Structures are given as structure tokens and as C-alpha cells.
Amino acid sequence: MKKLYGFTLAEVLITLGIIGVVAAMTLPALIQKNKRAELQSGLKTGYSLLQQALQRMSADNGYPVIPANYPYRTFKNEFIKYFDNPVDCKWGGDQGTTNSPLCGKGKAVTVDNGVTNQEIQIYKTYNKASNIISSKMLDDGQFVLKNGMLVMIENYSTGKIFISIDINSITKKPNIWGQDLFTFQLMTDGKLLPMGADGTAYKAEDYCSKTSTNTLNGIACTQRALTDESYWDGI
Asked: Which residue from 23, 46, 100, 112 lies 20 to 30 Å from 7 (Cα-Cα)?
């Protein structure tokens, strides 16, 4: 008679226990790495979509799209036409639509000096020092793309247009400036540059900082996120 060999129940349980411990140690790192890859890919996709829309807009106009041609709150109503069936969130801030949870609603807040400002309490600053970021860069037009990305525009002062995009929708975390919320600047020559690049209004040294408590901290992280692979290591 042949003698059959196999594992005892104790050996099987010990093996499963070891596998479980190894999985518990490695899975969080793998999940985090996958999330970082998704955010990196989303940023590149969002940047590409914005650039393509501007290129088509320029082609239709017959000249480059430049900030000087778009006075206060005139850019959004033209720009939105170059996206496929977006959800129009109106202006944003406390003037945003209430029809869709995809839109970046703001809240009117009276600060100590009696001045009423608009704040968006959904997003955190880059270093997470505050979960309230100033909406003054996001409330001159908002709309949601079919893939869920939320586009938010600053078109207040003559000569400057900023375009911010939440690359994975406002309903998904982390909702942090510099992680899934990124800002670009439309330059005077018609180029769309990532904020923090040379010539843009905000510098990474001051506005992509691990220590700053400024409510705009994170607005200048876009250039680093696109060009510095190590930027994502701490995300």
C-alpha cells in the first residue's frame, strides 16, 4: 500500500497566517502606489483636455485665446462650449448651482474685519493645514466634464485667467490642492502653463509648501506634479 503524504491542519493554518501577515504589510503600499498612479494619469489627461479645448477655441476664433480678450466672467461661457455635454455649475462659490452634487459649492463667510468672503470647505490646502481654501480662484465659472472632472475658472482681473481642475471629481478624495486639484494659467501668448512654471503668478516655493498656512497653498504645485517624479512619493 502506498503511503499518502499531505499537510496537517496546523501547517495549513500557519501558512495561511503567514500569507495574511505578508499581505497586510504589502497591500497598503500597493494600494497607495496605485492611487498615486491614477492621480498622475488623471492630471495628464486633464491638462490634455484643457489644451485641446483651447486649441479648438483658437481655431474657431482665428487667433490665440489670450486673457486680454476676456473681461470679467466672460471666459467660462465661451470655454464651456468646447467640451462634450458638460454640467454647467454657473459661477461657483455661493453663486454656484444647487442642481448637482458634482459642482463645487461655496459658502459665504464673514471674517473678523467684517468682510464677507467665499470659501470652499470641501478642499484642503497642500499641507492639509486647513480644510478651507479660498474660492476666489475658483468662482468665475465652473462646469463638470463627462468623465467627472470639475473645471473651475478665475476670470476676475483683466489680463489673468486661471483654470483649476479636480481630476477625479469633487465627490472623491483626497480633495487636496496639489493632489487631485491642480491649477493652470492662461498666458498672454495663449499657452496654458502649469502653475508654478516660470512666468506664472504663483511660485512653488511659497504656494506649494509643507509649512505655509496660506489658504492658496497648493495652487503652485502643478508644475512639480507634472515634471518631478519624486513629487508623488509623499502623496
From this structure: 23
Instruction: Answer whether 203's CB lies under 8 Å from 185's CB.
Output: no
Query: Do the strands 116-120 and 107-110 form a parallel or antiparallel pair, or are they unpaired?
Result: antiparallel
Burial of 112 (0-12, 13-18, 19+ CB in 10 A): exposed
Report the C-alpha gap between 33 and 39 in whole angstroms: 10
Strand, helix or coil for residue 161: strand
Q: What would the pLDDT profile of 47-87 be if each residue is shown by its tens digit?
A: 999 999 999 999 999 999 999 999 999 999 999 999 999 99
Give a three-class secondary structure readout of 214-233.
Answer: CCCCCCCCHHHHHHCHHHHH
Cell digits of residue 109: 463667510
Please name the residue ranges forming H helices in the chain.
9-61, 75-79, 204-207, 222-227
Run of H or E residues at 193? strand 192-194
Q: For position 17, what pLDDT does the model report? A: 75
Residues listed for the chain: 235
